[in-house]
Amino acid sequence: MATVVFVTGDDVSTDAIYPGRYMATVLPTETPQYAFADNAEFNGRLKAKQVPPESVVVAGRNFGCGSSREQAASALKGYDLTIVAEGFARIFMQNSINLGLKLVIAPGVRASEGDRVEVHPDRVVNETTGESYATVRLPEARQAIIDAGGLIAYTRTLLLQRRGRA
Amino acid sequence: MGMTVVEKILARASGRSVVRAGEVVEPRVDLAMSHENAALVINQFAEVFRGTGLDARVWDPSKIAIIFDHRVPAESSKTATNQKKVREFVAAQGIARFHDIRGDSGGICHQVLPENGYVRPGFVVVGTDSHTTTHGALGAFSFGIGATEMASVWALGSAVNIEVPATIKVVVRGTFPPMVGPKDLILHLIGKLSAQGANYRVIEFHGDAIGRMPTSGRLVICNMAVEAGATSGIVPSDKETLRYLRSEAGVKDSIDLVLPDLDAEYERVVEIDVSDLAPQIACPHTVDNVRRVDDVAGTAVQQIVIGSCTNGRLDDLEVAARILKGKNVAPGTRMLVFPASGRIYAQALEKGYVADLIKAGAVVMNPGCGPCLGVHQGALGDGETALSTTNRNFKGRMGNPTAQVYLCSPAVAAASALTGVVTDPRKGEQE
Hints:
Low-confidence stretches of chain B: none
Number of strands of chain A: 7
Distance between the termini of chain B: 54 Å
Largest sheet of chain A: 7 strands, mixed
Oligomer: heterodimer
Helix content of chain A: 25-40%
Strand content of chain A: 15-25%
Shape of chain A: globular
Structural class of chain A: alpha/beta
Largest sheet of chain B: 5 strands, parallel
Strand order of the largest sheet of chain A: 4-3-2-1-5-6-7
Strand order of the largest sheet of chain B: 4-3-2-5-6
């Protein structure tokens, strides 16, 4: 069971998740400080460590639209958040899978801040409201990267098979 | 059943005779582009090789292009240090298609790639920039990826686990009215499809209006295909593609046109007639919040921006210069112009556009992304409004979450610079 720490609507862009002016910061150890930097309240809670790992952000459709900046995924990964959304934009979803940020696609999902939710393999249950939402499985090709522990590990295995001595 | 252009390109690049939407393939990559974020790609590339005992060499340095454009010249020591690190990597790996901060060969990646003939019909192009969709204008399958995915491409020479996207066919007919053009068309289409209407799909452009559209305009519509969520936009290559590559990009070797089959399967078909299209404007804070310019005419504007990978090309500067020549930017409004590349800047100087713009009061900046992504060169004050020919108007995009950004064509931007308020450029024509 996890707590919903932030609820947002449709079309949240990577400019909102990680503003462009911080793009010169690239290290995954440094990007989390700028997560949702233009939202002083949520950014403040994150930085003050008031958000426990595995907390849930609930979003609408097309979360992560816009720029391909990977910092948007690495910043959220830094707080070990789970993003439950009605849908994700393509590049953000791939970046998240590549880096191991946990995404859940749950059409119709509704929650309020403070709600308690349980993420099951096939559904998300909002224990506070009693509502249950079926989840959409990630495509198999993407699941393979998650199972490998991210794209770095996945690529390393392929590289060794193709170029290497191993 | 036949194949769409992208299915054909992916089949060929994956060594298959046929691929269908939904299949997973691993296409070889013909061109891999990065900008300043190559600094992050370099880190991830080193991670891939860590512990393998292998020499960390890129698969083929001749297929990698790196262009500095997002923060040029560097706005901070941090950026300058990242750029230095990229220069060292480029030298060590022997990457020749490197465009540093230079007045002649520099510029925005999405202009530098086409004008140097790096992109060809049938290519698979990946770029660590969401607007990599731009290069579909030359008949390539070109899409944005993240830095870690690029590190994987640099190591393997292919893009792993690519799902063949379904395709939406957009047929554009008719002749644009005066002061209306490709930017108005793509804004109108995004408004129609919505910001996620083409998510995980390709938009393939057809119709007589596309056939007559020069490559500069095709670059505009493919550039913004991503604002409807599209993986890529693509214009099947034709005689205009050949003309551009031969006479503007200086390509000498053979060019292989890749066309869709007549019986290709499309997920849906959208038809647009541009004959009576009015100038369009995307209102804050989403790109699909599109209206006719008329609807918001009179809105006060403090900053006008003409430039970017969307509208910083020679024909864009020509329109702006024509509207502003001999007139003045309105008091209380500042106008910033960013040519898309050094080559375009030089051409605009030669044709007198730069002088016309400067004399009217515009500030002509160096080629680069400028204020589009809110890093430097034109941040907005609290509550200010910008009218821009760029491609995104998300809250905070130009560096200030309390500011408003409207998106429009160069004609609308230039006409509005004269009045200081959002202005329909057709009004000025009649005077």
